[in-house]
């Protein structure tokens, strides 16, 4: 079923045994939700951009990148799990759909010291109300002269503090540990100043986004990324739960060297726009962002966050499918077939039951598929037809045996 080549954005790419990007996914590359001014994704993007004055904005890069740009340039190990065909969409062995906006860091750093990059990113995943194989990220980075960073940053933070209003509670003390180390090449004072600037800038950004939360709680948790060290995730306390908002850290110096900027030191962060838009607008299901229904699209205005008014919830239709699984079975591959056959009509896929036959050692899986349209009632007859097609395709593509 794989064609000889895939054409996207007017360019053609030969396929090979790595090819796993499906037509359903490739179609999504034309949507560019972050460029539609009345779309919640774009509204959040624009609000965030307004808290980064003087940053150069990029939101127009092709989603097709090389594995070098997405992984190698960013110091991903050869065997990093992110590279797996079960997690990433490949056009062929060397060409893929970006899994994060960091894929453009190096290219942009050669021409800019303050940058924001927004783009659609692609990851193979399970199916539920908060996961979708396409989502949107914003990447930010700022570089300083390593020699004068301490002074430059101190001045900037003092000036900024003078025109800031509102309070924020954050665990600001930065503790450097062997597990989350300083890079040998960095001067400690310059690195710590850059971390202060990173945290200050991102605290200011969330405070603007959550302007209605009187008492926003923020915490910084040690993290690990191949392209930053030290690294942190920012979490905010939202409705009683700590919610991960972004990943960040001090840029690996090799990247700055490759960008032709060996004498700079810098921070970078990356955040997911859907997660913020879901909670800020009160949107119950991630599929809604892709809805073409006017009842969704007409609700929003540029520059304002207003609560989503749900249109009625339509009735679900639940179907189970059971099969004997095979050696290389991966849930993401199963979900891919489900998306391909049924599209956005599937709300949720759950593993209901799993057992290994004591004699044959074969593994049996039972998945429950929850079908529900967001804009109309579905009929049992129509879902039966889809389910029948799914049963066929699961056998064809995954070589499993239905039970
Ligand atoms: N690219 C990372 C991700 O997708 C986020 C990140 C960006 C982390 C920049 C650190 C610096 O998870």
UniProtKB/TrEMBL annotation:
It is an enzyme of class 6 (ligase). Its main location: mitochondrion. It catalyses: tRNA(Phe) + L-phenylalanine + ATP = L-phenylalanyl-tRNA(Phe) + AMP + diphosphate + H(+). GO terms for biological process: phenylalanyl-tRNA aminoacylation. Its EC number is 6.1.1.20. Belongs to the class-II aminoacyl-tRNA synthetase family. This is Phenylalanine--tRNA ligase, mitochondrial. The chain holds residues 76 to 478 of 478 of the full protein.
